[in-house]
Amino acid sequence: MEKTFDILLKNRKILYNFLRNTPKEDLFRIPEGFNNNIWWNIAHVVVTPQLLMYKLSGLDFTIEEELVNKYKKGTFPNGEPSEKEMEKISAYLFSTVKHIQLDYEHGKFQNFQEYMTTPKIGLSSPEDALSFNVFHEGLHLGAILAIKRALAKA
Q: What is the pLDDT at residue 154?
C-alpha cells in the first residue's frame, strides 16, 4: 500500500499546484458544457476518501462533515468558498492522506462495508477503496485539465 499512498501524494501535489497557480476567477468558472469547476473537483477529491475509508468503515470523518456534504458525489458548485474554506481544503489535500495512512497502518479500517461504486467497481476492503480512490482522483485530474482547456478557449 506504500506505493498507493505515494501515488496519491503525487497527485495531490499536482492538484495543489492547480489550486495555487490558477487565477481565482478560473477556479470558480464553469465553462460551457461542464457542470462543475476546478475548485469543486479539487474539494471533491479531498472529501471522497472520507466517505470511502471512514464512512464505509463506520468511523467518524477526520474533516468537517459540512465540507463532506458540500462536495460529495451528487453535489455541484454553489457560489464561491470563503478564504477560510479554501485554506482548509488546501491543507487537507495533504493532511488527510497522512491521516488515512496512519489510520491504515494502525488497522483502524477493520469493519469495512462492501460498496459498489458508480463505475461498477466493487469495493470489499480498505485496500480496494484506496486503489479505487487513486483511479477516482485521476478521473478528476482529467476533468480539471479539460476545464482548463475549455477556459483557455473561452
A: 78
